[in-house]
Amino acid sequence: MLDQFSRTALLLGTENMERLFAGKVAVFGIGGVGGYCAEALARSGVGGIDLFDDDRICLTNLNRQIIATRKTVGRYKVDAMRERILEINPRAEVGAYKLFYVPATADQVDLSRYDYIVDAVDTVSAKLELICRAKALGAPVISAMGAANKLDPTAFEVADIYATSVCPLARVLRRELRKRGVDELKVVYSREPARTPLADGAAACREHCVCPPGTARKCWERRQVPASNAFVPPVAGLILAGEVVKDLIGAIPAAASEPMAAPVSAAPPAAALAGPAASPCPALRAPL
In this structure, is residue 2 part of a structural domain? Predict the structure, then answer.
């Protein structure tokens, strides 16, 4: 019987769809990258998705975040994302956790519950803590590198962290993960050099703050407000989701990877024929 996942099943097969339905994925960071990743996971049929982010939707998020509309400004991102996922698949099990994942809060999350962990956070300390703990558990994890200050959505690649280049965030993580004994990590990164924002947005934010009431971390508190757009961060998020789906199912059926037969067409006119042819972090398992 046809259902909303029938077109995906034509590519992946029924058994793989069952694997996705039974899968449980944690997405840390529900912004321009993580929001699109979470949505693609839901539309792919992943049955369990937990969302982690303590931020609220801001007016400045409307240019790139899938959950950001005039109606959702001021709402917690995880609440808006959970609501959206359940509108896509009411049978999904979606957890919304208002948590800023850093070393001080990491004990509140039991990473052993997940079949896959997505790191879409934007602070180095959070990334290191999440990656180290996932590696200590042997849990599959994929990490997004920098997507801000970029204009070329075709420059993204999937690679091991130690095979990356150009990306400043990847360079920092390579150094810090090597110190911590992490010898491999799948990442999505861009080979496009980061651009310098045309103006210092932090000053404008301080003078004309549009952060919703109750925002824990004002955007102007950053050293530099990053530039962004509607077409680069989403691509990174979709690539993340694609890697998670492929890894969860293990292998795509051979028939799905075979090229489709070329359509039969009438012979071309005669005129046409004449032309040219392991981690040091503790594996803590405190429940949510």
Answer: no
φ/ψ of residue 25, rounded to 5: -125, 140
Query: Quick check: is 161 in a domain?
Result: yes
What pTM, to 2 d.p., does this model score? Answer: 0.83
- Total domains present in the chain: 1
With vertex at residue 147, the alpha carbon angle to CA 21 and CA 140, rounded to the nearest 5 degrees, is 35
Q: Which of 98, 85, 91, 113 is nearest to 25 (CA)?
A: 113
270 within some domain: no
Q: Virtual CA dihedral for 255, 261, 263, 267, nearest 10 degrees?
A: -170
Q: Identify any residues that bridge with 96 across adjacent strands, giving them in sequence order.
A: 51
8 Å CB contact between 129 and 101: yes
CATH code (residue 181): 3.40.50.720
Residue 179's φ and ψ, nearest 5 degrees, are -60, -30
Strands 156-160, 141-144: pairing kind:
unpaired
Q: Distance between CA atoms of 204 and 288, rounded to whole angstroms? A: 38
pLDDT tens track for 91-147: 999 999 999 999 999 999 999 999 999 999 999 999 999 999 999 999 999 999 999
**Residue 5 within a domain:** no
